[in-house]
Design goal:
Helices cover about 55% and strands about 10% of the residues. The chain is built from 24 helices and ten strands. Its main location: membrane.
């Protein structure tokens, strides 16, 4: 091993540890490592930033826009609601719902699919007395499985495809991955509907638990005539920065003031509604002129009115709120929303709301304005998992929805029959969507997840450093020395497991980018078809089932389903083994 190889290896190990312990956002960690390689002269700027112009990465950017345009008008959601309502049994409902969802995830980005259908499934389950936890992990898993069918099913497939093109090799065709993806999906669905269903817990969702114990979250105080701060603002009255409590609403006769602003004036007879650590209410009770209403009949549903709603949001990996307390992030002023409670690992965090330091996967129960969901549904800070109201212009939305679906199908067919490359077909579809005003340029910009693109492009540069210094070749030879005596099946299994472990610890695209150079070196040494290794790495990088942090769809359903970390291990480990066995077997038969 040379000094350069050793330096790159140390940098990559440090990067893994930083990602594992969530020191910063994943895209910033990987980008920082890339910058170090440039500053030390290990990579030229051209080599380091070549990934930013990679065709696979640019195709992913276009895919975000195409998927967003198709899902914007809710045509899939409307169809699925009608389709699901026709079923009477739980297993029948799973079949009717998850088969179409898995097929749609083969052609659309699975993250917005899960964000869209999570609140729909929760509401459907609640209406029928079914625990949402029986449906939400399967929702994430079937979209992951469906994504393995086509080139555009996941960003990982496009990343591997783009890297192959960069190496001067042929990439994947649109349905080449289906050879492995279809058996994986079919057997995976059978497992989820049978053994997996039995292993899933029967949990209530976060909001249901909160509503059941409303009195632990809400306290009501009456402003008496002798309150010294009457006719003063909330801030002047000292009710803005309370220890562990948050003033969420003022009820004044028939009028309801929410969210409460610092400039709101306190009047005699006002009913002040507080949330937070209700056990700390004693501090307020000592104030003259405030009377605790011990027999309040208010619950969380009573806080909702025409201007205020309760919203659940899951903190994302890329959130600017990470590693800060809620108070430090100035959440209330930034989003015009109050945090009622924070849920982590199926438990409410019982500390002062403002002091809670947020982590990926935390579920926030928010009291917000009526337009919050629409405004922040594409935010990088969190995934909003509450339903949007039905839009007024339903007929216009329906016609635009069907048109966008026709454009998507046309795009897929043009690629399938080799009329256009994937990149050109996507580019053409985006142009049509913008020209026909299916999506505006501003909306298109919002759909593109730039943090994901930065992560992928930076990982390309790290992969280039591995290849240039010979580290990829050195690691490939090390794996071959161990695996050669055991045969090609063992080598493929090693590659799959290593890629899968990387995916669970960091992210799927980064795992694929780091493993592909090693896989190509191994294919070259063994004089076998490189496509077999590329397919193995693409599937292994997508097949994240064992932890909630390895894949963002797992993270989205983590809190709303009331899951614990062990639930993913219990349900996901057998599925992960099934997918590995099918992948290795099929790749060995078809390509070797």
């Amino acid at each position: 091993m040379t000094i350069e190889m050793g330096f790159v290896l140390i940098a990559i190990v440090t990067m893994f540890l930083a990602l594992l312990f969530e020191i910063a956002r994943p895209d910033m960690i990987v980008f920082s490592v890339l910058v170090i390689f440039v500053l030390t002269g290990l990579l030229s700027p051209e080599e380091a930033f070549k990934g930013f112009s990679n065709q696979g990465m640019l195709t992913i950017a276009l895919l975000f826009i195409v998927a967003g345009a198709v899902q914007k008008h809710g045509i899939l959601e409307q169809v699925m609601k009608r389709w699901l309502s026709k079923s009477r049994s739980i297993k029948g409902s799973m079949l009717r719902f998850f088969i179409p969802v898995s097929i749609s995830s083969a052609f659309l980005n699975n993250t917005p699919i899960v964000v869209t259908f999570t609140p729909m499934i929760k509401k459907w389950c609640e209406e029928r007395g079914i625990p949402p936890s029986k449906f939400l992990i399967p929702l994430s898993y079937v979209t992951i499985l469906g994504g393995t069918i086509t080139l555009i099913g996941t960003s990982t497939n496009l990343v591997v495809h783009g890297m192959l093109l960069d190496y001067g090799l042929d990439g994947f065709s649109l349905f080449q991955l289906s050879i492995v993806g279809i058996p994986v999906l079919l057997i995976g669905l059978i497992y989820i509907f049978t053994v997996g269903f039995k292993l899933l817990p029967s949990n209530k969702g976060f909001s249901d638990q909160v509503k059941q114990d409303s009195r632990e979250y809400i306290a009501e105080m009456i402003v008496l005539d002798d309150f010294p701060s009457i006719d003063l603002t909330v801030e002047a009255a000292g009710l803005r920065e309370l220890k562990g409590l948050y003033l969420i609403e003022i009820i004044r006769g028939a009028e309801r003031l929410s969210p409460v602003k610092s400039t709101t004036v306190i009047r005699a007879g006002d009913r002040l509604i507080f949330t937070g650590l209700i056990s700390t209410i004693a501090e307020l009770q000592q104030l003259k002129g405030l009377h605790l209403e011990t027999g309040t009949d208010l619950d969380l549903d009573d806080l909702k009115n025409g201007h205020v709603q309760l919203v659940e949001a899951v903190v994302s990996h890329q959130s600017s709120l990470l590693s800060k307390s809620i108070k430090q992030s100035q959440f209330r002023s930034k989003f015009d929303a109050g945090v009622l409670a924070v849920h982590r690992n199926n438990e409410r965090i019982k500390s002062k709301i403002g002091d809670i330091v947020l982590k990926p996967g935390d579920v926030l129960l928010l009291l917000t304005g009526s337009d919050f969901t629409r405004t922040y549904q594409y935010s990088n800070d969190f995934y909003v998992v509450s339903s949007l109201e039905t839009p007024d212009n339903l007929n216009e939305n329906r016609s635009k929805g069907w048109f966008s679906l026709i454009v998507l199908i046309t795009m897929i067919l043009s690629v399938a029959f080799n009329l256009l490359s994937m990149f050109k077909a996507m580019l053409f579809a985006v142009l049509i969507f913008i020209l026909t005003k299916i999506i505006s340029p501003e909306e298109a910009k919002k759909k593109v997840q730039f943090h994901v693109l930065l992560l992928i492009a930076s990982a390309f540069g790290v992969g280039t450093a591995m290849t240039k210094t010979g580290l990829a070749s050195w690691m490939a030879n090390g794996l071959l020395e161990v695996g050669k005596p055991l045969g090609i099946i063992a080598i493929l299994t090693f590659v799959y497991i290593l890629t899968n472990v990387f995916t669970e610890l960091i992210t799927n695209s980064a795992a694929a980018v780091l493993m592909l150079p090693i896989g190509l070196e191994m294919a070259d040494s063994l004089a076998v078809d490189y496509i077999g290794f590329a397919v193995t790495i693409a599937i292994a990088a997508s097949a994240s089932f064992i932890t909630p942090i390895g894949y963002q769809t797992n993270l989205i359903v983590y809190g709303p389903g009331g899951y614990q970390f062990k639930d993913y291990m219990k349900v996901g480990t057998p599925l992960s083994i099934i997918v590995m066995v099918i992948t290795v077997t099929v790749v060995n038969i078809i390509w070797f």
